[in-house]
Amino acid sequence: MIIVMEKSSLDPQIEHIANQITELGLKAHVIRGTERTVIAAVGDERKIKVESFESFPGVAEVLPILAPYKMASREVRTDQTQIQVLNFKAGNGAVGVMGGPCSVESEEQIVSCARAVKASGATALRGGAYKPRTSPYAFQGMKEDGLKLLALARQETGLAVVTEVMSPEDVELVAKYADILQIGARNMQNYRLLEAAGRSGRAVLLKRGPSATIEEWLLAAEYILNEGNPDVMLCERGIRTFEAHTRFTLPLATVPYLHRKTHLPVIVDPSHGTGHSYLVTDMAAASVAVGADGLIVEMHPNPEKALSDGYQSLDFSQFDGMMKRCKVIADAMGKQFG
Ligand code: PEP
Ligand code: MN
Asked: Domains of the chain by range and CATH?
């Protein structure tokens, strides 16, 4: 259930309703938008007489929620959420770009990537320290040493750092070094991990599972939001289909579709979405044109030598070209880019 407050409603009225909801055994989330304040009651609605809230002072409207995801739904928030972490901004008129290697490999590699990312005008550095690899024999990441190098690269450049966390036990450690926690495609339905990320105090980039429906993905986001963490970004990174020419199939209709269903920012990953470096710039440009609130793009000083995903990584000059092309599109749409 969503309770929409009058524009003129007072804080004690909002607090009173939130307390009533809590007393009835549900969770109350107060969401303050620019237009109005709404209170989302999350839990078993059968315990509540929806109409009884209509007579509370300050209430404009009471809406039973139809979408199974409540906090993520457009119904609770008509304006779009903007997430800001250091200089990185995504959503509500801002297109934020995260660039960097698939894996952190060395100090020289990650710091040179960070400098190139910054010089091209992007505001966040990606880099995996804990790598979910299909084969147990493939490079598994530098783990905490990799996190330390990411923090060093942030210190050098001021870029926000985004990196993957693979298990609930690692959340505290990764959150100590990173600004944004990435939940990888393979972990989209690891519910204990989602809850831990929800309690981490860090923004979360939630990648879509390759076989997950949009509803399952939004319900996964709901796990994070339900822990009181409003800073969730959804990342389309391609889904599994019969088509084998690209590593995954990148469905860009996801972006405008999600904008109808949720207020959360939508990021696109054209690197994993295509699996070919020669397709990345075109799909990044298409993503911005279709309204993406951000991009996450793999780049490497020498893609041929990369320890993971080199075949889909841009070199520094290709990354710079991608940024220039996407900026023209973002400018034409009246959006802030970088
Ligand atoms: C990655 O970002 O390097 C990664 C492993 O992504 P995904 O979880 O989308 O496969
Ligand atoms: Mn990768």
From this structure: 2-63 (3.30.70.1140), 83-337 (3.20.20.70)
